[in-house]
Each structure stands twice: as C-alpha cells, then as structure tokens.
Amino acid sequence: xxxxxxxxxxxxxxxxxxxxxxxxxxxxQDLPAAEMExxxxxxxxxxxxxxxxxxxxxxxxxxxxxxxxQASAFNAAIPETNAPIVAFLDGDDWWVRDKLxxxxxxxxxxxxxxxxxxxxxxxLEDGTPAELVIPENVPRIGLKSPxxxxxxxxxxxCLATSKLTVRRWVLERMxxxxxxxxxxxxxxxxxxxxxxxxAILLDRPLCFYRYxxxxxxxxxxxxxxxxxxxYQVQAFLAKFLPxxxxxxxxxxxxxxxxxxxxxxxxxxxxxMYDGGRWQMFHMEMRSFRRQFKNPSLxxxxxxxxxxxxxxxxxxxxxxQARRWYAKKNLxxxxxxxxxxxxxFPAVCKRVPLLKRD
Length: 357
Hints:
2 domains; 45% helix; Spore Coat Polysaccharide Biosynthesis Protein SpsA, Chain A
C-alpha cells in the first residue's frame, strides 16, 4: 500500500451539527484519494457525532476514546496517522476545496519549513462569513529575534488548529502533549514549529472558523466555571511552554515574549475572581506596559483614567466594562486623547464582511 502524502486529523466532541460539513470539506479536496488519509478522533461525544462519522467509512477512520480534552485526543490520534505531513481540523470548522493543494505546494517548494498556515474566515454559528482575517506582509514567521517573535505572536492566529499543517518530525520532536491542555492543545505544536524553523503564512483564506456557544476560547463568556477552566489552561501554558521552548534552544528573552499573552490572561482572571481592586489596578498597568511603548501625554492621561476606574468599580464590573468597550470597537475614544506605539505590530488585517447595526 502506498504511503499517503498527507494525514488529515479531525478532532471532534459533540459536533453532530457540524461534523458532516467538516469531513465533506476534506473528502472534496482537489487531491487524489490515495495521497490523503483521514482520521477522526472522537473525544467521548454523547450525541450522534460517532454515528455520522461512520457514514464516511472506509474513506475515514474513526478513533474513539473517553472524554479527556483536546490534548488527549491528539495524543490518541497522532500515532494513528502515517503521512510525513499532518493537517489539523476542528470538527466544527471546514476547509475550502483547494486548501491541501495550496499548502502541499508550499511544503514542496520549501523543504526546510516545519509548518504552513493561512488566512481564514471567522463565521457565525450558521456558517455565514462575518470577518476575513488575513496576514499582511508576513510570509514567514519564527522565533529568531525579539521583533520576529512579536510578529509571530500576533500572526500565529493564522496557524491555529484548523489552519495548522506541520511536518511529522515536528510532532515527533515535541513528544506527547500534556493532557492538562483540555483545549489549546495546538499551542505547543505551533510554538514548537516556530522554534524549529518557523512557518510560512499564505494570504489566501483557506478555511472557515466557526464561532458558536460551545467554543471553549473563541466565544466570549461570563460563566465563572468556564472562565476558570480557561484560566487553568492559560496558567498551565505559562508554566509548560518555557520548558518546551528551552529544549529547542529558544532564549529566555524570546520565551518571555511568547508568554506575555498567557501571563496577562492569568493575571486578569486572578484579579477578577480571586483578587480585588488594587490587584486589578496593578494588572491593568502591567498589561499597558506590555502592550504599548512611547505613549503620548494624552495617552498616559487616558490610561490613568482607566486605572482610576479599576479602583472605583468591583473587578468583575470593570471587566464587563472593558469587554463592552472592546466589543463596541471604542478604541477611537482613546485615540482622541493621544497615541502610543503597539509593542506587538498589527500584522493581521481584519476585514468585516457583514454590515454592523
């Protein structure tokens, strides 16, 4: 039997509404069937997901396991794949028809590159495209310098699960993914690839990322239980990633850049749920220093006003106000006061596809 050129790994949990579209988008790829194998790992679904997946046999192989989270699903399925290149897809997302052809062409032309990502569409729950996310002038990202690392931390949204394709040797060098990562199990894979040579990002949108109420991270939530699980994942990554990246020779300076988002997220959670106004104030000021440099006097005045608000409002109420500000895209208010240079460059353009009310 000829070894396939690419293995497609679809991870799924209770995706009965979406899994058929995900699998169909893979089987409809403009690629000979002999060059592609498809493995679906079901992480203990309690709905009709496994039944729907079985309809696609023998083109699709189903791996079933008890519910344990995304890392445990990856660890169960990766050994079941055989190709030198592995492409990942979440069971609630789907690809455009020429996704694999485009990605495999890049691997063929760049034998040294560990991973390939690309632009994508954010969609509503019903699949309607709401926003196009596209990398601008960042054909290749990696972790060779502080500037490159800051670019990579922004642009790697185009490398996350349903956009992620890696060479098998990246997965072999990384080893098993810690099963504490019930979500974000793609993070160690992405960062390993960046440390081991980087990734090429295509500016073509090749997949659709679906936002819905069961998204663990993509969907905004005020549920304390769900947010605590998010915190636990972020806190674990903040501890695990330095060990992983150090193994691959990444310097402490670059590791600190990789960790900035996880540190900020865990500090915000701790301030909101386990701290008080002063902790929220100090967290907000640290976050400001991480995100901006060379602020104008007007910008500093605005941030001082925000700091005062953290002391006036209960932490949970302040976080609600902060998220409302972001949702309404009110950064224009800040720009009236002054400006500052972002520490992390805006290298991903977001193009709205729906009219706003």
